[in-house]
Structure formats: structure tokens, C-alpha cells
Amino acid sequence: MRNYVLVIILIFFLIFALPVAIISCSKKEVRRDEPEDKLYLNVYDCKKDQLITMEFEEYILGVVAAEMPASFHIEALKAQTLAARTYTLLRMISFGGKGCSAYPGADICTDSTHCQAYTDPHTLGKDYKKIYEAVSSTKGEVIVYEDKLIDAVFHSTSGGVTENSENVWVNKVPYLRSVLSEYEEHSPNLVSIQEISIDNFISGIMSLDNTVKLDKKNIENEIEILERSDGGRVLKIRVGNKHFSGRDIREQFGLNSTNFTVEIRSNRIVFTVIGYGHGIGMSQYGADGMAKRGATYIEIIKHYYTGVDIVPIESL
Hints:
The chain has 316 residues and is α+β, with helices and mostly antiparallel strands. The chain has helices at 2-33, 56-67, 74-91, 128-136, 166-169, 198-208, 246-253, 284-292, 297-304, and strands at 40-45, 50-55, 108-109, 141-145, 148-149, 154-155, 191-197, 223-228, 234-239, 242-244, 260-265, 268-274, 282-283, 309-312.
């Protein structure tokens, strides 16, 4: 009789109790390892030459660390966080974005000349805490214009005035308007000078257009800036018998920006350049300067991006 009862108990355990215990443990494991509130994206790591799936906020940590010095004011770092988060989300395929055009299947890449720079946040050492604070304290906050994500572009140093989008990228964007950027005097790239030989200048121009005709002996009269934007950047320049954009000249000769002057000194072409970057959107050194004078990250964002609002991702 006693053996009979033990058999019944064993059968009951195998049929009912054991499956319930297994299901319960399985559910607990899923909740622990795959939290429902986390967002993931596909990042093409150009250094590793591979596509990697990353947790969204962890990726933003790495972008902020790579794009802005940790020595900057915490409010500037928060502003950079919102710009990076918004820029990324706008491109994510799962949010209706087009993804990274250079690497099919990726939402974004780590090439700073194409998307955004990135560094492993766990290699930051003592800087990790400050970057983490900037990202975690603004978690999920993004920038919108008329309830739509903006293209939150940014640059290093504007040189005192940011640029209207249409003066660089053709399209007029209502939130990318020219504004003053007053506090950039601590930028190492506020003013730079670049010299090249006249022969190298001519060969560079010829690579842009091999039909250019110019007199090397009278070179000072062969170069003329014809048009500047309200922000001071060169829109049109004549070299010999041809016209070029300031962007053409910047890219050809590796200048920091299109806000430049040209002089002839001792048989050399001397470019004096103001600012660093395309000049559209947020100036990073300007943001740091504002923050050091008491501005919050919200004030910084609303200064550099005209007419925008800051909202949680969940509201989109």
C-alpha cells in the first residue's frame, strides 16, 4: 500500500508540478535577460568591419564619448546627448528611417564622416561617470519640430554665427537657421591658417576643373571671392575663368570650414579659416560656452535649433 501511494505522488509530480515549475523558471529568465523596455539598433562598426546589434542608450553613450570632450560642461554633454539620440533615431529603420546608405542592413555606422563617431564607452576610465550622467539623466529625450524628429546635425566651431541649411545643403530647413554663437573663444579651431605652394594650388584647382585658365605670374588677380553667406562663409569664388563653391575649395584643400580668406605671401597661397565644420545646427564649443555661463541643455538646444521642442521617445 505504501509503495502504491509513492507511485501516485510521483506520477502527479511528473504530470503537473514539474511542467509548472519549468514554465515559471523560463518566464523569469526571459524577463531578466530581455527587458521589454529596451531598444536595439544595428550599427556597422567600421573598425571591426562588421554589423553589431547594440542596446540603444549604450550606443548613445559611445557616440557622446566620441563626439564631445568629456571635459566639457555637463549641460553641453546633455545637449550633445539629445542631438546624438535624435540623429540616430531619425535614421533607424524600425522607426521609419532609411538606415545607413553606406552599409545596407545597418541603421547607422561609426564613420564620423558619414554618420557619427563611436567609441566603446567601457574604455573611458574616469570619464565614464560624467558621460553616463549626461546620457542617463536625459534618457529617452529627443528633439522634434512640429511633432517630428529633426535632423539634429552639429559641428565643432561656427566662428561666431551658424549657417542656414540651404547655403550648404540646398534644402531650406525651418529649424536649421543661422543664429549667433558667441562663446567659442576657447575653441582651438576658432582661427586656423593653412599655406600651400602656388603650384599645388593650381594643380588642385585643375583637378576640380581641367579647363580652368589662369595666369600663374599674376595669381593675386586670378582669385576673387564673389559671394558670402550672412554667416560669412564663401558661397562663390572665382579662380581664373571659372567659378567654384566655397565647399569645393574647402574639400579640395582640406580647410576647416568655408569661412576663409585668401592671400598671396612669398609665392604661397595662404588661407585664413574661421571655425571648424559645416556650421549648421549646434556648435559644440558654442554649447560648452553657453553652459559655462549658466545655460541648461534645454536652453542650448532651443538656441541652436529654431522652434523645436524636447519630448520623450514614447510620445512619438
